[in-house]
Amino acid sequence: MKKIIVLCDCLPYPYDNGIKIPLFHFLESLSEGFDVKIISITNEIDSGRCHDYYVNKGYDFKVYKPKVLNIIQKIFCMLLSKYPQYVLRISDNNLSLIKSEVAKFRTDVAYVDMPSLSGMLNILHDELSINHLIYAPNDSLALGFKNEISQKVGIKKIKSILDFIRARKIERNNVEKASISFFVSENDKKYVNNSLFNGIRSDISVIENGVDIDYFCPQIKMNKLLFVGTLEGGNRRYLQDFIKDVYSQIPINMRWEFVIVGGCNDKDFISYLQSVVGINYVGRVTELNNFYGEAFCVVSPIRKDAGIINKVLEGLSSGCVVIGYEESFDALKKYSNFGKPYITVSSSSEFVIKLTDIFNNYEKYEGLGLEARKFATATLSWQSRYISFREIVNEA
Questions:
Q1: What is the reported pTM?
Q2: pLDDT tens by residue, 74-87
């Protein structure tokens, strides 16, 4: 039985945000034929529920709490630390315990899921002599900061530039230490390989997001529009533009209820959402399937290539009419032989026209939702990705 140790900076279960979903399913793919040890370094509460879930699956599971840094430690961590970014957030005692746990497990294969654990990659490779490291950060850290620079001004822009420079250093270190790295989009893979390594790396791969087709199922549809996503960063910016340029341009008497599901820490933004006629802001929830199941239409206002976007996958699997800007669907073009059971638009004005037609003539779009479900079942299930996950571990 092959042994693998997994280090992550979250509780993989329950997967209550999009970042956790690939990690959760990676762990699910190892439920047969692998001896798995999970070390989670996180301040999240409810670790008991996660512990029980994985112990019942036969995995070994441990949680360690990070420490809070003071301003001097943060500066040192950002600029001077031999092990970039994260190791200072682990107390010396906990770091010793983690090293001991890894050493006792006696494996030569380790999986590290997030850039914030970059220091652990160095320790695993340099100090503990684990040579087969799998690095799976979902998105490129450096590309994320690069995209933010154009959105900032003044001091915030300078900070974003410094973050970008640091992120490039961290990401290059991580990929160099790893035996194989994989991202969720071809765009992220190309950026890392071409920008950081001049295109010479052959050990960077793509494993796209999938969807739990048994959980996200069609239900009796209602005249509701749905957006799901954490309301921070890009998600929030794209949603705000969509409300201003698209939803608010549709006459009030024609609008469907627009249900927005996602956590937000900005009270002013929540007040703004609640002030728009037709919007029902729900906030953070633990179960999403009923929201998707009831919604006739799901919107994806994302305007960048981010791989297969979770809200698109979940909407298709739930038999919804999914509509969004073309960038939201770039990663689905490879499945063109299965058809195109979704609606793409290239501008906010076209978005208004299409949504208005859906609101007024929804009967003619009902068949599209049925095709979306067939499409998701045929091409997008997580089970179809499990083979790739297991191959990566076995090759390591």
A1: 0.82
A2: 665 555 444 444 44
